[in-house]
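Here is a tokenized protein:
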Amino acid sequence: MRRKIIQVLRQAQDKFYAIFVCEAVAQRYKNLISKNQLGRTRSPRKQSQNLRKCPSSGIFDQNLKKTHMATTPEFRDYILDLLEPIYPVRDRKMFGGVGLFIEEGMFALITAEDVLHFKVDDENRADYEAAGMPRFARMPYYQVPLEVMESPDDLRVWMGKSIEVARRAAKAKK
């Protein structure tokens, strides 16, 4: 009986402490608001922000489900067939795309839109910018020009530069 009473008292004490902490946090938040120390608060989402854009038609629709696109196996196999004779490559699915790896690390990325991107740094970024190729998000990957993909000699050079970038990045991490 005594153990049961102690257990109930501990539970009550824990609940009281939790309530006390919640009230203290709420009071601190109210004080910050009254002193305007929180800065500008976020406005509620607008109706237009709830709309999703259909990739094929470009129409915005609230009922459109967000679909998870993935790289097509055919394009993945095509890229691997292009790159394998140049250098042994491993592939791994990542976020709907495919990462292409050498021993030292990732050097290329196939995005969900079936586009090949090579890793870049200051050494080879000018090549991609001169060709007018876009960067992939905020990552150090640029789209490979179609002319390069169609020429085995050019592809060998561009892939070699990208592999060197991956090796330098791996050394920098160590």
